[in-house]
Amino acid sequence: PNPIVAIVGRPNVGKSMLFNKLVGRRLSIVEDTPGVTRDRLYAETDWNGRRFTLVDTGGIEPESGDELLSFMRRQAEIAIESADVILFLTDIRTGLTASDREVANILLRSKKPVILAVNKMDSTGPTDPEIYEFYNLGLGDPYPVSALHGHGTGDILDACVSRF
Ligand code: GDP
Ligand code: MG
């Protein structure tokens, strides 16, 4: 069986858009409204000759509150159980949030390989210094990415396949 990479992160950080960009097809639904992705989606893909299965763990996402936290915990635990590498996606526009910290702690305890990516870094040129706050999660160097434009996706894929 192929290694599994699971994309985990809060609603609306861009999991589905990144999934689509990495897979190269519009398989999952991307919407402006949080919570719009209907199903967990799987796709077989490859990078530099390494085949793997990519999973968008979104599903039906709650918008806020206690429901959000329990959803995030469950999502992280499913990823820990089923994935070989976890791609933890955050969002430069919202910055680091309490639920990012919560999920990061669950992932850290799992000892699974985690690639931390900060999405919506759309501009080229010097890296926005706001990315540095994401070092506080204790998950190593954050990878800047723009799921919209595709910037940074190659580095993320390199990082993922290096952990199989
Ligand atoms: P999900 O809930 O994590 O699956 O997030 P979606 O993929 O549905 O994206 C949520 C919103 O963020 C949508 O409005 C996307 O167009 C937007 N978005 C996602 N990635 C990017 C990005 O790299 N740059 C910008 N500017 N917007 C993005
Ligand atoms: Mg989604």
Automatic annotation (TrEMBL):
The gene is der. Belongs to the TRAFAC class TrmE-Era-EngA-EngB-Septin-like GTPase superfamily. EngA (Der) GTPase family. Associates with the 50S ribosomal subunit. GTPase that plays an essential role in the late steps of ribosome biogenesis. Residues 3-164 form the EngA-type G domain. This is GTPase Der. GTP 1 binds at residues 9-16, 56-60, 119-122. It comes from Papillibacter cinnamivorans DSM 12816. It comes from the Bacteria.
